[in-house]
């Protein structure tokens, strides 16, 4: 076995499988050029050295930079070449996956290759961006995901691109901020990283923290192609959230958990948070502010679309969603009203398949390696199974109660000032006392209603307008008193108060 200290780390599992004699590998990656380059290095590092061939339907078989023209447009002939070749070699078939679902003879010949290559030093690698696996080949082909560039590789790409494209540009020198910039590129291909660096360099003289928004915007554009994940712009700042001081402090402390220093200290990457409580009290607002505070993209997963057949089978839809969110990590994955999504699992007719999907999702939540922070909200916590909310899947469970006096004052001030009204000219204390039992959403709606009335009368907003709007409203704490009481009782010894 040739020793090489310069092989890229993602090659380790592929090398292990090749040296163990696995005849056919299926490598999943969008980065065809990067993976091909890495595999050619691996072929040269093996003992004995393997010749390296690639095949495309347009060029046929190629060795090195030279196309032989063999098997051009003929996938079956390419497999015959692999079978007949009598020296150690690695064969990479690009975009071979469509033939696996279209041609029975290709499936048959791959089964022949599996048996024949087991006794040789030849390895067949299918390189494709998506998985197509006929049932006949499930036991013969080993599937491996090829990871996207890690932070170290990204740093090398960024430095090299700036040096060649704009040598005068500088890079953030503060270690924490510098790491935050490189982390923001995680989940992008090497080509995407290079493209974004050049795009930023056209407008900026430095790769600093202000470039983070540009990077996140590029990730948002990537997610427009997803059918079950939605990118949510998060312009909400923590200062726009009234009260909830305990959660705010927790969020600021956990932000440090994504740094290298946290890893060196022995801390794990934060896993997630479950926010439950009374509807309209700011749960969704907190998650948007959290993503903004951490400078991470916010993605919302729609469980209804996963099971609605909009993007294939539920299993494939969920798998693609997980791969997509991991591809843009670090990111915050928002599952709104998660109890509704869980009920989709439990109410599905296909109980066997559903239970497997649910178990797979729970396992991913527990064991995921990518820095994906799951932020879930729930209005009816009783609908969640105990195994879903236990420690290990969420770092903390917070309960958001009806706002207190000071919090109601903050909410009135924020909504008035957001709409260009001088809160200093209004008795916030009196309004807050009259709004006892009102949710933040109800306070906001009262202000909007009052402003419509004033606008209709062609005059400025008056405090009496707000009092009248509140007086005409029946708050949730009255209409759903029993359920709110039950929810508060549940939270007494099971959740941390967000306030």
Whole-number radius of gyration? 28 Å
Count of β-strands: 16
CATH fourth-tier homologous superfamily of the largest domain: P-loop containing nucleotide triphosphate hydrolases
Relative strand content? 5-15%
**Which CATH architecture of the largest domain?**
3-Layer(aba) Sandwich
Write down the domain tally.
4
The overall pLDDT average reads 85
Tell me the distance between the termini: 61 Å
> Which regions contain 5 or more consecutive residues with pLDDT less than 50?
none
Under CATH, the topology of the largest domain is which? Rossmann fold
CATH class of the largest domain: Alpha Beta
Read across the widest sheet, the strand sequence of neighbours is 4-3-2-5-6-1-7
Q: Return the structural class.
A: alpha/beta
Morphology call = elongated
Q: Summarize the main sheet.
A: 7 strands, mixed
The percentage helix is 40-55%
Tally the helices.
23
3D architecture notes:
There is one protein chain. By secondary structure, the protein is of the alpha/beta class. The chain folds into four domains: 9-145, P-loop containing nucleotide triphosphate hydrolases (Rossmann fold, 3-Layer(aba) Sandwich), CATH 3.40.50; 151-225; 230-400, Rossmann fold, CATH 3.40.50; 405-479, Helicase, Ruva Protein, domain 3. The chain has helices spanning 12-19, 32-45, 75-84, 97-102, 104-117, 151-165, 175-184, 190-203, 212-223, 245-254, 260-265, 283-293, 303-307, 314-327, 338-347, 351-367, 386-389, 405-418, 428-434, 440-456, 463-471, 476-479, 481-491; strands at residues 24-28, 51-56, 60-63, 66-67, 89-94, 122-128, 142-145, 170-171, 206-207, 229-231, 272-277, 298-301, 331-335, 372-378, 396-400, 496-497. A seven-stranded mixed sheet has the order 4-3-2-5-6-1-7, with helices on both faces. Strands 10-12-13-14-11-15-16 form a seven-stranded mixed sheet, with helices on both faces. Strand 3 (60-63) and strand 4 form a beta hairpin. Helix 6 (151-165) packs across helix 8 (190-203) and helix 18 packs across helix 20 (440-456).
């Amino acid at each position: 076995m040739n020793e090489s200290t310069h092989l890229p780390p993602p090659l380790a599992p592929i090398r292990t499988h090749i040296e163990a004699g696995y005849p056919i590998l299926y490598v999943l990656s969008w980065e065809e050029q990067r993976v091909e380059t890495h595999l050619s290095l691996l072929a040269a590092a093996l003992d004995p050295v393997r010749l390296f061939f690639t095949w495309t339907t347009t060029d046929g078989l190629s060795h090195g930079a030279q196309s032989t023209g063999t098997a051009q447009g003929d996938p079956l002939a390419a497999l015959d070449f692999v079978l007949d070749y009598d020296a150690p070699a690695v064969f990479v078939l690009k975009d071979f996956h469509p033939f696996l679902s279209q041609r029975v003879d290709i499936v048959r010949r791959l089964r022949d290759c599996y048996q024949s290559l087991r006794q040789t030093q030849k390895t067949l690698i299918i390189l494709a961006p998506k998985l197509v696996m006929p049932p006949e080949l499930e036991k013969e082909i080993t599937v491996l995901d090829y990871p996207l560039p890690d932070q170290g590789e990204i740093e090398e790409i960024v430095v090299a691109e700036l040096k060649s494209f704009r040598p005068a540009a500088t890079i953030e020198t503060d270690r924490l901020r510098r790491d935050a910039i490189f982390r923001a590129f995680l989940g992008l291909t090497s080509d995407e990283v290079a493209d974004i660096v050049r795009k930023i360099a056209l407008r900026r003289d430095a790769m600093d923290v202000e470039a983070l928004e540009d990077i996140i915007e590029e990730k948002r554009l990537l997610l427009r192609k997803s059918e079950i994940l939605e990118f949510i712009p998060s312009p909400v700042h923590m200062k726009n959230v009234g009260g909830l001081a305990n959660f705010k402090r927790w969020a600021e402390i956990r932000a440090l958990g994504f740094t290298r220093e946290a890893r060196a200290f022995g801390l794990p990457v934060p896993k997630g948070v479950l926010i439950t409580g009374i509807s309209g009290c700011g749960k969704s607002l907190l998650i948007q502010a959290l993503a903004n505070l951490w400078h991470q993209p916010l993605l919302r997963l729609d469980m209804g679309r996963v099971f609605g057949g909009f993007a294939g089978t539920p299993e494939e839809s969920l798998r693609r969603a997980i791969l997509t969110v991991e591809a843009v990590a670090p990111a915050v994955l928002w599952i709104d009203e998660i109890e509704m999504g869980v009920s989709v699992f439990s109410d599905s007719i296909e109980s066997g398949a559903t239970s497997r999907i649910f178990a797979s999702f729970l396992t991913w939540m527990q064991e995921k390696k990518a820095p994906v922070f799951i932020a879930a909200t729930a209005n009816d916590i009783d609908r969640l199974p105990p195994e879903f909310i236990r420690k290990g899947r969420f770092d903390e469970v917070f309960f958001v109660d009806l706002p207190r006096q000071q919090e109601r004052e903050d909410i009135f001030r924020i909504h008035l000032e957001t709409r260009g009204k001088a809160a200093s000219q209004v008795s916030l204390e009196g309004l807050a006392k009259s709004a006892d039992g009102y949710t933040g959403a109800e306070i906001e709606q009262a202000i909007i209603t009052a402003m419509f009335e004033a606008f209709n009368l062609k005059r400025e907003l008056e405090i009496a307008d707000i009092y009248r709007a509140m007086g005409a409203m029946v708050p949730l704490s009255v209409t759903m008193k029993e359920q709110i009481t039950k929810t508060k009782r549940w939270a007494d010894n099971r959740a941390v108060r967000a306030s």
